[in-house]
Design brief:
Layout lengths: L13 E2 L12 E5 L5 H13 L8 H9 L1 E6 L2 E10 L4 E9 L8 H15 L4 E4 L4 H6 L18
Parallel strand pairs: 5-6
Antiparallel strand pairs: 1-2, 2-3, 3-4, 4-5
Length: 158
């Protein structure tokens, strides 16, 4: 996941607490993405795309995600990613949540979701949605099937 262009700590970061992960606090870092993260993020997400757990995206689409994207790192290796795609002031969506299979069930996905929620709040987004196969995880961090006024999201495949 790393290469000469990948800097694991280009910005200020947040260290995970030992009780939320199997890693020690000095080993795990959560931080915002930068454009320099593009190739390492694509490389990290490719297995999830190939297994059809995530949608395929163009490099330009990944660049858009990085603007409001977050990484979980084990020293220099990416072990998690999530992003918020802001459609308008009214609506945003958590996109591309992925945690390395060997690092799952340690609170990494939960923390990445929380960072996305915090970003949406900071950007004054009214509603944040997630389309996921991890219903339990999202419900544990406050996501519900219906909005307060009983709206429901409906979809059609064009």
């Amino acid at each position: 996941m790393t290469g000469p262009e990948f800097n694991p700590n280009p910005k200020s970061s947040e260290t995970a607490s030992p009780e939320t992960s199997g890693l020690t606090a000095s080993d795990m870092v959560f931080r915002e993405c930068t454009l320099e993260d593009l190739n390492p993020v694509v490389k990290f997400l490719n297995p999830f795309v190939e297994s059809q757990h995530l949608l395929a995206r163009t490099l330009e689409e990944y660049q858009v995600l990085l603007k409001h994207g977050f990484l979980a790192l084990n020293q220099t290796e990416i072990i998690g990613f999530a992003a918020v795609e802001i459609y308008s002031r009214k609506l945003a969506e958590i996109q591309a949540l992925a945690v390395a299979p060997t690092q799952q069930k340690q609170g990494i996905g939960r923390r990445l979701i929380q960072m996305c929620v915090e970003r949406a709040k900071r950007e004054n987004v009214v509603e944040l949605m997630a389309i996921t196969a991890s219903e339990k995880l999202f419900s544990e961090v406050g996501f519900q099937y219906t909005l307060p006024d009983l709206k429901r999201a409906l979809f059609v495949k064009p």
